[in-house]
Amino acid sequence: MMNNLAFIGEQKFTAELVEKIRSGSGELPLKITHLETIEGAQSTLSSTEFDLVIDTFEGDADIYLQRILEIENVLSKQTAIAAYHPQVSTTEIWSSMKQPERFIGIHFFRIDQPTNLVEIVKPEQGDNVELRCAISQLLTSAGFSVVQIKDRPGLLAHRLLVPYLNQAAQVFDDSIASAVDIDNSVILGLGYPAGPLALLDRIGIDRHLHIAENLHRELSYSKYHAPPILKKMNQAGLIGKKAGKGFYSYE
Amino acid sequence: MQDFKVGVVGCGTMGAGIAIVMARAGYQTIVQDVSEERIADGLKRIKGFFEGGLKRGKLTQQQLEENLSRLKFTTEIEAFKDCDYVVEAVYEDVAVKQELFRKLHDVCKPDAIFISNTSTLSVTAIANNTGREDKVIGIHFCNPAPLMKLVEVSKALQTSEETYERAVAFSESIGKVVVTTNDTPGFLVNLFLVPFENDCVRALEQGLGTPEEIDAVIKNGFGYPMGTFELLDVVGLDIHYEVSISLYRQLKDERFAPPPLITKMINAGYLGRKTGRGFYQYEKAGMFGSN
Questions:
Q1: Residue numbers of B between 146 and 205 with CB closer than 8 Å to A
Q2: Which parts of chain B have pLDDT scores under 50?
Q3: What ipTM was predicted for this assembly?
Q4: What is the structure's pLDDT at B287?
Q5: Does any CB of chain B come closer than 8 Å to the CB of residue A129?
Q6: Which candidate, B177, B150, B144, places its Cα nearest to that of B53?
Q7: Which of B208, B265, B203 is nearest to B228 (CA)?
Q8: Which candidate in B67, B105, B117, B152 is catalytic?
Q9: How many CB atoms lie within 10 A of CB A55?
Q10: For residues A147 and B217, is the Cβ–Cβ distance under 8 A?
Q11: Chain B within 8 Å of A185 (Cβ-Cβ)?
Q12: Which of A114, A149, B78, B245 falls 20 to 30 Å from A8 in CA-CA distance?
């Protein structure tokens, strides 16, 4: 089984993910290296026989693609590469790489902190079954729930979550109910751990807009279109928890 | 706690649950249904709930007896004459509910408030021509009423502010947490749940995942207590269809249209747990949690 992994990324989320895998993998002989940037880690990346390198970059789409190709050149040919970007599909990455079967689209789904859900993407061109199963097994052993999805925009999690969050923001903007009542209705009525407006604050309204706009561009259904109130809140800097204010105020 | 008298019309699943809530809160409660058989079924359900609670140490034998003693059962509408609050949990049809409230208006005290437990119908429509439109309000209980803390209070166009305030205070006195809407279709819970469930069914139709995989996304990614397909099997696909189509007709929002797969499964008799098969298969047909 795979046991030598590297994560590349300077976001808080990357460190949290590394910690989650370390604590979830318990007795497994798993070695995880956390590298902040590619530039700072060139020699490590080229000299170490990692089984898998995961790049957690989700910023500019062109930079994301460049990074994958750069990593492909630097790494030993045995090393697999994993990454995910809402705007650049696994199918597209496969068509750009010299050795596409080394690449696997892996989405570590998060609200703000990582969850137990991992989505693994099956690109249109084919299926690197062995690699996919090895990674799936590793992540399952580390406590994740792994689902395989065909390569479609939003995969499953964002595909299902975005219309519901968009709807909740519109319901609030329509003054159908207060923010507290909107969130309480699903917490107390359905047992959800948090309400949709609190979730938007935690995801970050700017990040939600990024995900929703991409989904709407690719799929065209109006349910993916983020309602005007979210754009206004973004313009006003009221993007949620990290700004101290969104639908709610935070200390 | 005030000495209110409460009436519950209908002792099916929701009516029996609401009666339990009232008795547990300490109110003298009159429960009415159309036949002795329905009353007997309702009473059995209520006794079963309290006896289950006794076994699990949730209440004492004395509390069980006190709760049951607060409940009186009858087939007569006239029994509601001294009630301060009457809650209806009858057949989900505007004309049926309006007719009931008209009859109750002749029977009940002038300041008695009439409460509809409707989940998809307009409280404004139900209130119309009942004779005391300003005293009609929606209080939608969740299922099962004795366990779910939430009620959705809906002010109809005709509802007075005083009625609303009394309804909120009454809801809080029976241990519920109130959310408030102005009689908009689906209120809040169904407004969010139904289209989300439909989106999950569409994802299944589109081959994005199996029921198990989609439910895994929902439970592990979103932290919901049940997967969508597990929940649909519990609710019943026929019930989901009725709620969904009712909201679609009122809102004309395509997310509320029940996807074709739901109709296909209903046509095949795959209604969920009650028929032993829905999105999942079950060893034997039966209601979730039934003995």
A1: 148-150, 152, 177, 179-182, 184, 187-189, 191-193, 195-196, 199-200, 203
A2: 290-291
A3: 0.95
A4: 63
A5: no
A6: B144
A7: B203
A8: B152
A9: 22
A10: yes
A11: yes
A12: A149
What would the two tokens of residue A79 be?
């090393």
Min CA distance, A178 vs chain B (Å)?
Answer: 8
| The two structure tokens encoding residue B267 | 């046509």
Give the number of beta-carbon pairs within 8 Å between A and B: 125
Q: A201, A248 in Cβ contact below 8 A?
A: yes
User: Tell me: the pLDDT tens digits for A62-107?
Assistant: 999 999 999 999 998 889 999 999 999 999 999 999 999 999 999 9
Mutation site for B-interface testing, chosen from A120, A158, A190 by largest number of B Cβ within 10 Å: A190
B140 belongs to the catalytic site:
yes
Contact A136, A166 (CB under 8 A): no
